[in-house]
């Protein structure tokens, strides 16, 4: 077996959420034995494992999925890897194929078993590191622009929350790669202004006292057509809506970053505020989640859109940004970094394959 970057580099293993809580609840577990794919399944050796804020919500039991309400599972939303074994009745794949998946859980590991229907096959010459950035961040961005209630067409203007993060970065690069002619304003801390500018967005201090007024000053006296809210607080949803243009303005809620405790130990007490109910009662607001609204509900459309995005990578028009890569053994400090958010830009990932990690200086 190829060496990996885990605490047990010559053994197939995974990180497990032993109980809900801070990053320290992640425990390393050796597969004994390695799982065997059943009917319609693949055993895949993970080469690149995605890292996302969704991992933190999974870690403290606040992820909005009824199947993740008890600890004992492996986090990790997406990955790129190589097929090692086919289960019975699997067609369309061969051992050695490079694949990607939006698995939702399981990517903090050296290996994973999942339905073949959830795997997307790559070409042998595709860059697995760049391609592995696509399933969650770049497809979320594409879905936000093309597959939501938002009316984002040529000449539109948008306000992007958490603009320097993985999805914010992806959204800006998707706009450029597909020549969408959209004016973009991005909320971020002043220390990330230069980075956000480099993406083609006009940065706005996320702590500014009157963000809607700043948006209008920058946008010719008008509000934006659509705000993408990543914070999920009442205050952020309200100012996101106020920053849009009149009754036609729309807010697409895409996250709940404001709910995270600063130390990454859990969610803060929001009292009686229910973000889902709040969004549901506003005709100009809607949620977008890539798994329930896109990958699961519209699989054929998702796959078609994915290949359109992948074609932009292959042609060189889209160059996914990997802000930081880590060894798999660093899952605890990774989750500490997710909690602080300091210095994080673009997509983050584990380089699980030891040879690949060494080529990237890890």
Q: How would you describe this protein?
A:
The chain is 28% helix and 21% strand. The chain is an alpha/beta fold and 362 residues long.
Summary keywords:
single chain; 362 residues; alpha/beta; seven-stranded mixed beta sheet; six-stranded parallel beta sheet; 21% strand
Q: Give, in order, the helices and strands.
A: EEEHEEEEHHEHEHEHEHEHEHHEHEH
Shape: globular
Distance between the termini: 20 Å
Strand proportion: 15-25%
Please give the count of helices: 12
Nearest-angstrom radius of gyration? 20 Å
Helical fraction equals: 25-40%
How is the main sheet built?
A: 7 strands, mixed
- Topology, number of strands: 15
- Poorly predicted regions are none
Helix-strand makeup class: alpha/beta
Mean pLDDT comes to 94
Give the secondary structure arrangement, pairings included.
Blueprint: E1 13-17, E2 26-30, E3 41-51, H1 54-59, E4 79-86, E5 98-101, E6 111-115, E7 119-121, H2 128-131, H3 134-146, E8 157-160, H4 166-177, E9 183-188, H5 193-198, E10 202-205, H6 211-218, E11 226-229, H7 234-242, E12 250-253, H8 275-280, E13 285-287, H9 290-295, H10 299-315, E14 322-326, H11 331-340, E15 347-351, H12 354-359
Parallel strand pairs: 8-9, 8-11, 9-10, 11-12, 12-13, 14-15
Antiparallel strand pairs: 1-2, 3-4, 3-6, 3-15, 4-5, 5-7
